[in-house]
Amino acid sequence: MTVTPLTTGVLLTGGVFAFVNGVAFWMFYVDKERAIRGEWRISETSLLMLAFLGGWVGAKAAQRRFRHKTRKQPFRTFLNLIPFLWVILGFAFAYETDLMNSRSFFAAQ
Length: 109
Prior knowledge:
The protein contains four helices and no strands. It has helices spanning 5-37, 44-66, 75-101, 103-107.
């Protein structure tokens, strides 16, 4: 098997994705355990930011697995909105990239 830059990029991206989701899952577990023991908690902002930065799948899996923050509003709503934000940002990025690469854009200048 030949290793190309594309396969290296895919493997690296997949590895980063798995790592971030694993960290998100672990942080939800730690926060749940701290909640049970009445200890200092991980902030909701930190948990949401980790989910937004690519750990949404791990965060949702942990939320369901540990039944953690399932009724907490607005946390639950914000967590559920993250995939929609990704889609919107993806479309915006694709639109801007296409616009900047378009010959008609540079011809109009």
